[in-house]
Each structure stands twice: as structure tokens, then as C-alpha cells.
Automatic annotation (TrEMBL):
It comes from Coccomyxa subellipsoidea. The keyword Transmembrane applies. Belongs to the TIM14 family. PANTHER family: GEO10507P1-RELATED (PTHR12763:SF28), PTHR12763. The lineage of its organism: Eukaryota, Viridiplantae, Chlorophyta, core chlorophytes, Trebouxiophyceae. Residues 50-104 form the J domain. Keywords: Membrane, Mitochondrion, Mitochondrion inner membrane, Transmembrane, Transmembrane helix. This is J domain-containing protein. It is a single-pass membrane protein. The keyword Oxidoreductase does not apply.
Length: 110
């Protein structure tokens, strides 16, 4: 008589484990893709080389080619003529100029 009870408990446990596995799988599939963590905060009043490198996603000591490549990539996504923000485009251009040594540090009019 104990055999049917044990079989019932085993079937119930298997069903419970299967349900839990399906729930975990559906949560895993519906989770958003992992994204890069971005700097949380606003812009500094006077841009530093560190901030310029963070804006372009490069190192402060990056070469001219890498800086220009990063600038182009970001400007394609944020150009004002393509619906981007003119303020962000200004900051990206300022970051490029600062890292390339062109122009002086300036205070944003905003």
C-alpha cells in the first residue's frame, strides 16, 4: 500500500520541479539583454579630459584615429539633423576637440 503513495509523491515532486523550471526559463527568456553600464550624472561645468574620454567611450590616452572613430560613431547616433540633440552633439564635439588638443576648454552656454 505504501508503493502508490510513494509513486504519487514522486509524480507530484516531478511536476512541481518541472513547473519551477519552466517559470525560470520564461523569466530568463523575457529578461532584457545585458547592457553596458553608463555613467550616471550630468556634465561638468568645465569639461575635463576624463569626462571627454567618458563621453567618447575611449581612454584619455587614446590615439587620434580611435578618438575620431568614436566621435563619428556617436555623432551618427546623435546628430541634430537626424533627430538627435544639439546639446549632446555640442558636448561630443567638445570632447573630441579637447582630447585632440584643438580648441580650449569652454563653458557651455546651457
Amino acid at each position: 500500500m505504501a508503493t502508490p503513495v510513494i509513486a504519487g509523491i514522486a509524480v507530484g515532486a516531478a511536476a512541481y520541479a518541472g513547473k519551477a523550471a519552466i517559470e525560470i526559463f520564461t523569466k530568463f527568456r523575457s529578461a532584457p539583454p545585458r547592457m553596458r553600464q553608463f555613467y550616471k550624472g550630468g556634465f561638468l561645468q568645465d569639461m575635463s579630459k576624463r569626462e571627454a574620454a567618458q563621453i567618447l567611450g575611449t581612454r584619455e590616452s587614446a590615439g587620434e584615429d580611435r578618438i575620431r572613430e568614436a566621435h563619428l560613431r556617436i555623432m551618427k547616433a546623435n546628430h541634430p539633423d537626424l533627430g538627435g540633440s544639439s546639446y549632446l552633439a555640442e558636448k561630443v564635439n567638445e570632447a573630441k576637440d579637447l582630447l585632440l588638443g584643438k580648441g580650449k576648454r569652454r563653458t557651455s552656454p546651457f
